[in-house]
Amino acid sequence: xxxxxxxxxxxxxxxxxxxxxxxxxxxxxxxxxxxxxxxxxxxxxxxxxxxxxxxxxxxxxxxxxxxxxxxxxxxxxxxxxxxxxxxxxxxxxxxxxxxxxxxxxxxxxxxxxxxxxxxxxx
Length: 122
Hints:
Helix content is about 70%, strand content about 0%. Helix 2 runs parallel beside helix 4 and helix 3 runs antiparallel to helix 4 (about 100-110). It is an all-alpha fold. It has helices at about 5-30, 40-60, 70-95, 100-110.
């Protein structure tokens, strides 16, 4: 893997993690949700990492097809059930109070757009 791609992946992971941290912090101040403790932030970081890693692995196995066509929709429906179940497994395993069962599939779905795109064949 090229070092530049690695930096792009790290940057995308950190941007996703920062967005989730801000969402949880904003939920506390704006909507009165419980304050996210360091344990909750660690659970968010772990769930984001698992979802991001799953997206990278899935992208290696089945590269993201072009935006038009039915293959992208089929790929999405094949990806979501295992990612959702992995997120639920993390919630049960960690006894987490965060939405890992939604975060893992979301990041797994968004990750391939941050990496190297599949080249079209001539």
